[in-house]
Write a structure and sequence with these properties.
The protein contains twelve helices and 15 strands. By secondary structure, the chain is an alpha/beta fold. It folds into two domains: 4-125 and 287-307, NAD(P)-binding Rossmann-like Domain (Rossmann fold, 3-Layer(aba) Sandwich), CATH 3.40.50; 127-281 and 315-336, 2-Layer Sandwich (Dihydrodipicolinate Reductase, domain 2), CATH 3.30.360. It has a nine-stranded mixed beta sheet with strand order 14-13-12-11-7-10-9-8-15. A six-stranded parallel beta sheet has the order 3-2-1-4-5-6, sandwiched between helices.
């Protein structure tokens, strides 16, 4: 079978995980690395002995006939220009989160992708974490009964552990919920199995070197009556945690602890689910290999990837609504943003 050619735009830390993921799958091959700093691309070509081009101009890579997939791993504020260009070049696209920093940016990407009929996947990579996959299957089996509340938190003192040149920049990285908390909002929507109707949020700014409030607490109302809550904080002095709570009439889950007496008769206390947890901020810990494998499956078999751009746009709407609510002090209806589509 012909290998699918992959290119990566932006050669920072996460790009290395895509290099490894494409190399590990026999159906793909890295054929181009794009970086404004040629040395950043060169280090990965040398480290992994890649037979690929190196470009400082993405348009040259997009003209390569042997490139089928483009992974956009740039700072957040330039995602849209590269996604639109890749779509117009007929390439399938992996988009690092967040999709964009504005509603308008997300809509431009959607328009280009639909017009050019290319496939997308958004790197909410925790979809392939074993704990989240287990929760998804428990929900499918209705182990929790009637689920009425979901909680997901993204707790990461990111400004202590990463490059602040753009992660700490409001212009380049966005806000706390856009920079990292969108992972939690995505999981919140995924597990709720319902569309968000309204968002109410509050934020706080502490003494830190980032240019935006580092903590936001979000409450959401789903169309089917569920409620949800998500907190993002970059301010707490603590190890990284990705907390998950699912509350139902027949069972409850708190991270890797499950109480489901309907499934386990006689159960009197929470039981541990022995699996890999999402409690690491190290991108090398995240399941990019499975994400890339899923995307290759969908391209080869002509299936819809999940989560694709249209699904992720709904997650981004919740994030934008949360920031708007926190700034205005008022609840925001998702319909206000959907009308911009």
């Amino acid at each position: 079978m012909k290998k699918l050619g992959a290119a990566i735009i932006g050669c920072g830390q996460v790009a290395e995980e895509y290099v490894k993921a494409f190399q590990k799958d026999d159906r793909s091959q890295v054929r181009s690395l794009v970086s404004r700093n040629r040395a950043n691309a060169q280090r990965y070509r040398d480290r992994y002995d890649l037979q690929c081009t190196i470009e400082t101009d993405a348009s040259k890579m997009l003209g390569q006939d042997d490139v089928d997939i483009v992974a956009v791993c740039t700072p957040h504020n330039v995602h849209t220009e590269y996604v639109v260009a890749a779509a117009e070049a007929g390439k399938h696209i992996i988009i690092e989160k967040p999709v964009a920093l504005t509603t308008e940016g997300v809509r431009k990407q959607q328009e280009a992708v639909r017009k050019n009929k290319v496939k997308t996947i958004i790197s909410f990579v925790l979809h392939w974490n074993p704990l989240l996959m287990t929760i998804d299957r428990l929900l499918e089996q209705e182990v929790f009964g009637d689920v009425f509340m979901i909680e997901v938190d993204y707790l990461h003192r990111i400004w202590m552990t990463t490059d602040l040149k753009w992660y700490g920049s409001r212009e380049k990285s966005g806000t706390a919920i856009l920079t990292g908390g969108c992972h939690a909002v995505d999981a919140l929507r995924w597990f709720a199995r319902s569309q968000v109707e309204q968002v109410c949020a509050y934020q706080v700014k502490t003494e830190n070197p980032i240019e935006y409030p580092g903590t936001i607490s979000v409450n959401v109302k789903f169309k089917d009556g569920k409620i949800g809550r998500s907190t993002t904080t970059f301010d707490a002095q603590m190890p990284y945690r990705f907390n998950i709570g699912v509350y139902g009439t027949e069972g409850t889950l708190r991270n890797d602890e499950l109480f489901a007496p309907k499934l386990f008769p006689g159960q009197k206390d929470f039981m541990k689910i022995p699996c890999i947890l999402p409690h690491s901020a190290d991108v090398a810990h995240h399941p990019f290999v499975d994400e890339v494998s899923h995307f290759l499956d969908c391209i080869i078999d002509d299936k819809r990837p999940f989560p694709d751009l249209d699904d992720a746009a709904k997650t981004m709407d919740v994030c934008f609504a949360a920031d708007l609510s926190a700034q205005s002090g008022k609840p925001v209806a998702i319909s206000e943003l959907e009308n911009k589509r």
